[in-house]
Q: What sequence folds into this?
């Protein structure tokens, strides 16, 4: 009886408040959260990091194998709006959908060694910023990657952000590097020691934040490092 009432209420909710794609407005299927598969497949421009070797050999520090970005950041466009909704409107389902797509794309990339003992490491937020926001958007994306790829996600608190940095927006590269220096600490070295790690973030800009995190992880004894982001700016 209770099950029947629940199904009726769910049906009424779908009629009164239909679940639609955040981008195109079309109805979503039951297994879609906020973005339809058509938009995920066709709406965004592939990142120039699709030819990863060109990017990697040019700017990546020693110890980082390559940086994979799924799409090009579209300032003022749909993708920027989605990431804004994720970070500031608490639409965690957007991050989950983007992460699932990123995980699928990463597995398809020819340079990705699927047999490696990978672990996902989302860029940590300082505890004050995470408390204010309510969640870490990089971890939400990483959870989505884990769901679609079955790659292990590092336990929360294993690596922390000990420096409450200012936003990097508008900073020069030198200022970004100074701002983020010594911002991270590996609390549980055994969680990454000799492991192949994938650093996860929403947008790759200059790489200052992910590179500093990678440096802290290398000092703690991790093995191969990749960087995976939804977009590159």
A:
């Amino acid at each position: 009886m209770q099950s029947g009432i629940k199904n009726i209420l769910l049906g009424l909710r779908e009629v009164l408040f239909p679940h639609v794609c955040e981008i195109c407005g079309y109805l979503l299927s039951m297994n879609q959260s906020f973005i339809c598969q058509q938009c995920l497949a066709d709406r965004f421009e592939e990142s120039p990091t699709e030819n990863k070797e060109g990017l990697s050999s040019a700017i990546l520090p020693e110890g980082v194998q390559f940086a994979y970005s799924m799409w090009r950041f579209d300032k003022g466009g749909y993708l920027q709006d989605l990431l804004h909704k994720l970070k500031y409107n608490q639409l965690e389902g957007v991050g989950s959908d983007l992460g699932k797509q990123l995980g699928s794309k990463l597995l398809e990339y020819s340079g990705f060694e699927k047999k490696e003992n990978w672990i996902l490491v989302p860029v940590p937020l300082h505890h004050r910023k995470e408390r204010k926001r309510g969640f870490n958007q990089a971890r939400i994306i990483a959870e989505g990657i884990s769901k679609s790829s079955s790659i292990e996600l590092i336990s929360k608190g294993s690596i922390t952000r000990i420096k409450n940095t200012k936003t990097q927006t508008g900073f020069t590269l030198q200022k970004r590097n100074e701002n983020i220096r010594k911002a991270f600490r590996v609390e549980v070295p055994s969680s990454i020691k000799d492991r192949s790690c994938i650093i996860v973030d929403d947008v790759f800009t200059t790489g200052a934040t992910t590179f500093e995190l990678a440096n802290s992880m290398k000092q703690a004894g991790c093995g191969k490092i990749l960087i995976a982001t939804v977009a590159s700016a």
Remarks:
- The beta strands are 64-72, 118-122, 152-153, 159-161, 184-186, 196-204, 225-232.
- The chain is about 40% helix and 15% strand.
- The chain has two domains: 1-43, 45-232.
